[in-house]
Specification:
By secondary structure, the chain is mainly β. It is built from six helices and 24 strands. It folds into two domains: 241 residues, Oxidoreductase, molybdopterin-binding domain (Sulfite Oxidase, Chain A, domain 2), CATH 3.90.420; 113 residues, Immunoglobulin-like, CATH 2.60.40.650. The structure holds the ligand Nc1nc2c(c(=O)[nH]1)N[C@H]1C(S)=C(S)[C@@H](COP(=O)(O)O)O[C@H]1N2 and molybdenum atom.
């Protein structure tokens, strides 16, 4: 495979310039198992704060026996440095497929709102221990960020989210200062962000400035109102947050990255189909690919990249496709024998979250 030329953030496909929301072309995304920073999607709800890493302080407050105020140097000096390879994935990844069923709120993300990076920082669990945090499993750890995001009502408020205490105490949740060995860039949360492997990207607060141990989930808009999975009968005008489920873990999913949707392929040679699959912290044990809309399947080859609990899985398959139009489909299976729903219509929700139905693209062989 020829390497693709080095990309910059300017090569991303921009859904919105302000706030900045953009994703890479899928062939780029599939080019490296560890996503280059330039190819990492950006999802922001407001401004991109520029914070001086020298004066920035992270406060640890709430149900703690010692409040902390940590500089970047304190974090790097007082805690063991931990690196975790993990996927960052937006709950709106693949929303465009749900919008084929019926419109939804939100940007029409293709399958590119996902990236697999090496994150480095301190373990959140260690930081909480240093603060003498109460670790009752019913508590929540809230993250307040420096950016101001616009709510549905048009009001502006600081971005905030939370995760349940048991997840916060798992060693792989990081207060991260680096991605792929480089300091975090501004759009990815410099100088400090939270990384919550396995959870929807929304919980991984960028530009974090306060970590608070509290009895309830964060009262910020993003936690209370925004990232909820609603049943299909609920619409924007009937929404009632009691009917929604807070999105934490991400579902089993898979996508075809190459060829691209709508591609024309030369006849007389087998078509190389490549993509990713993700099963959160379960293993992807099988990936099926179909060249005829899901009537017949064959197994894709799963590529081995070591035992990376929180990474994605790369796969490829060679298909014999006769001349004409074809619908290519992928679905993955996890270690519990679960697979994905066939139709996006079965999982449609008005906010357009968690699209995990079989990914389908059309190609023409001529
Ligand atoms: N402070 C803050 N943190 C944030 C966001 C944001 O807008 N502000 N967006 C969240 C969402 S929805 C996602 S999917 C991820 C995206 O991370 P990335 O832009 O580094 O890819 O960041 C999360 N953390
Ligand atoms: Mo997101």
């Amino acid at each position: 495979m020829l390497g693709l030329p080095k990309a910059t953030k300017d090569d991303l496909i921009v859904h919105s310039a302000k706030p900045f929301n953009a994703e890479p072309a899928l062939a780029r995304l599939r080019s490296d198992f560890v996503t280059a920073i330039a190819d990492c999607y950006v999802r922001s709800h407001g401004d991109l704060p520029r914070i001086d890493p020298g004066t920035h302080r992270l406060r640890v407050t709430g149900h703690v026996s010692r409040q902390l105020e940590l500089s970047l140097a304190d974090l790097q000096g007082r805690f063991a440095t931990r690196s975790v390879m993990a996927v960052m994935q937006c709950a709106g990844n693949r929303r465009a497929d749900l919008q084929q069923v019926e419109p939804t709120l939100g940007d029409p993300w293709a399958p590119g709102a996902i990236a697999n990076l090496m994150w480095t920082g301190a373990s959140l669990a260690e930081v909480l221990r240093a603060a003498g945090a109460d670790h009752d499993p019913l508590l929540h750890v809230a993250f307040e960020a420096a950016d101001i995001a616009e709510n549905e009502g048009g009001e502006n408020a600081r971005y905030g989210v939370s995760i349940p205490m048991p997840k916060a105490l798992s060693d792989d949740v990081l207060v991260a200062w680096a991605m792929n060995g480089e300091p975090l860039t501004v759009e990815h949360g410099a100088p400090l962000r939270i990384v919550v492997p396995g959870y929807a990207g929304v919980r991984s607060a960028k530009w974090v400035r306060e970590i608070r141990v509290q009895c309830q989930p964060s009262d910020a808009f993003q936690q209370q109102k925004d990232y909820l999975l609603f049943p299909p009968d609920i619409r924007k005008d009937t929404q009632d947050s009691c009917r929604g489920t807070t999105i934490y873990e991400m579902p089993l999913n898979a996508a075809i990255c190459e060829p691209g949707d709508g591609a024309t392929l030369p006849s007389g040679q087998r078509a190389l189909v490549r993509g990713y699959a993700i099963a959160t912290d379960r293993a992807v044990v099988r990936v099926d690919v179909s060249g005829n809309g899901g009537r017949a399947w064959r197994q894709a080859a799963i590529e081995q990249h070591g035992n990376q609990r929180w990474s994605w899985t790369f796969w490829h398959a060679l298909l014999d496709l006769p001349e004409g139009q074809h619908e290519l489909v992928v679905r993955a299976w996890d270690a519990a024998g679960q697979t994905q729903p066939a139709d996006a219509a079965d999982i449609w929700n008005f906010k357009g979250y968690l699209c995990a139905s079989w990914h389908r693209i059309r190609v023409e062989v001529q």
